[in-house]
Write the structure tokens for this entry.
Amino acid sequence: MHRVLDARAFLAVIAAVLLIAPLMGCGGSSATVGPDEADDDDAHEVAPEPRVVQPGAPGEASRTIDPTRLGSRPAMAYTEAEVRFMQDMMHHHAQAVEMGALVEGRTTNEDIRLVAHRIAVSQEDEMALMRRWLEDRGEHVPDIHPTLAPDDDPHAHHAHHGHETVAAPSAHADMPGMLTPEQMQQLTDASGDEFDRLFLEFMIMHHEGALVMVEHLFSTEGAAQQSDTFSFASHVDSDQRIEILRMRRMLHEMNQPANH
Amino acid sequence: MHPDRTMWNRFICATGAFLAFLLLVTPTAFAQEAEGAHPRSDDPRVGLSAGYLDAAETAWGMDLVSTTPRPQGFYDPENIGDLGLGNSDLAFQGNYVIAGNFSGFNIYDISDPENPRLRLSVVCPGGQGDVSIYENLLFMSVEEARGRIDCGFQGTEGPVDPERFRGIRVFDLSDIDNPTQVAAVQTCRGSHTHTVVPDPADNRAVYVYNSGASFVRMNEEMEGCSRVGPDEDPNTSLFRIEVIRVHLDAPHEAAIVSEPRVFADEETGNIAGLWAGGRHGEGTQRTAVTNHCHDITAFPEIGLAAGACSGNGILLDISDPVNPVRIHEVVDPNFAYWHSATFSNDGSKVVFTDEWGGGTAPRCRATDPENWGANALYHLENGRLEFAGYYKLPAPQEATENCVAHNGSLVPVPGRDIMVQAWYQGGISVFDFTDPSSPVEIAYFDRGPLSDEQLYIGGYWSAYWYNGRIYGTEIARGFDVMRLTPSEHLTENEIAAAELVRMQESNLQHQQRIEWPAHPAVARAYLDQLERDGALGSARLQALRGQLDTFETARGASAVQALRTASRELIQQADQEATNGRHVESRRLRGLADTLAALASRTSAISPSSPTSTTARPPSSTPSCGRAAPSATTRRSPSA
């Protein structure tokens, strides 16, 4: 008899806990509340089931959802526009790096060298990121062609990362802000103050083209839904705006009288 | 602009040019060097082995006391670097921490900070998920194209989608286990970060400064949004911040009340006032440049806010919060992206951060210049910012570790300016900037990279001090709690004094003045500093410490009188030090004198375990029912 009573009492406690537990959780539908192991210091050994709530639009009630559904949340498909953006931007960045390489031997202006260095570091990194993004998705990683064939310029050293091909005439001059081979030649042939001015003007033009590419991406159907793409394109945008600002100031100062 | 930096700049330029030469001559050598061990440094942070939850870790002057991986639904085992599920910023209230995430937020109960418990997860995607809490309301920034009004995770479609949400969400947390969305204020550029500014005229109302950093949405999706420059449209959505007013009694009426043109030139009225220049040369065109703030930190008690606004650092007078007025701005040749700001507690300094590379790039490699992607420390006097120095994480990181200056907070040690700061995969660094021209690291915690093969986005987004502990959001690895430990740079008394400071609520972009209670630990912290300074001789130190001991144990009339006498003498000495130009020592002496005088005048008993609240507002109600959900927290035993 004692055993029966004990078992009944035990069941009653269990039932009470089951009934009260959701109330203790302070309301809401709580069908998925997990086992209460609050007093178990070794709880980390058991994967817990925390309550997961999804609010509705303002004025609507929140609802409890099954967290296991979230683990397999629908992968937001990337779009052709994003692939093209990454591929095109690799070419675009490569030209900026190519322009930056021209600084060596053509100017001693420290501000220009500083800007060129920063652009080179930033865009090299971003090219690596874009390459990885494309590779991870099994998309084509473009071959990078210098704007000018290497023989044209003994100073230039181009950014090649294992996808080198024979130099070919630029097929990407139609991207916004890209220097034509003639403009690149003009920059290559310049030095001193003339180089500084041309470098800034061309790089501002080049950066502004990148902004157009970002804007185009953001206004394309379904693009930039994933945080990494969104974040990357946003950073390209803000980085280049700031560099444009910096270069415009430098150009502005160059255009001032010497006593400025 | 900074005459004292000319030589330093030359050095940096020369170094930069040399590095540029190396980089450009052999692009691949650059990567190889960065990927290998860094022979130039014997810092223990160099060469830590990689891993997701099993990376090697090292600490100095602080301990990791617990680490709680991201909960189910907030990580993808197939892609640990998925930023779309990454942790972001933190907000604090009572015993709760709200940890923002690109897909929602998690609420942790930190009643026992060594063993935080996940209380609730809330799913509501949209990035970045920066959060602030004010009374029962939680504000959340949403900027991405996938954000939906209904918190759905299916994303949106096309450039115009009526279901899209980009802006500030307002949740009611009155029932902490069942938060509801009560308002969703749409903005043209979404919300990258935001700042809570209490309404000085109505303690039931609060302003939210919105910093939208992303693209301007289509006019067809939200009427009035305009993405063109000011020369084409004077009502452009660029070049402004938004001020949202929220009343606690009617949060559903939250709405934009002003759109201040904080970049305007006060003379010409040009709303794009923060750059000089015009059209330059053939083929160039005018493009909007510095046209947004990334983050604004308000310090209402001094009437100011510091804006980190892409290409500039700006200072705003916020005495009228609806109409902030820019009073000063600075540029810095080494800064790429003005990211965030933190005032010193006395408002005499500002720490600006430079998020060069946006936080997803490795910018702490041995090859990266020490002053790029760093903090710039400024003196602030009479509403003017004046450059003093840089601080960058002193340990080089791997090429697979995204690393740059990021979010941090003050550590409330009286008599010193100390900040704890997140550096993404560079870990956490605690530094003293009492002298902003020569900041010094005093503690750190770091893990090895997530991977030594490729860069996964991870590391600390935010690291903030709150009520005695340091809380960190690791983008990929979860939620960490740390505490400071005594070292040659920080004494037990200084830590004890910091732990006395209690906040009922803390949002780091809304800075609150720290005040220390009259407590012997505070006096002892000052004494330790004055000993370190050599400002007090050993006999004097011994006498003062003895007087404090006597006061605490005996508390007789003579002990009280001894403190009063000591206080008067210390004030005299403080004045002398000030005339000798030793201002730091002078302030510490005065802080000690004030503390001793306050102790002497106290009639009530001192209870070391009854810390004082520093906030004026009464504690908001917290649910008394409810249970702590078990979590996968790993508890760390204290180090020896």
About this structure: Chain B is about 15% helix and 30% strand.
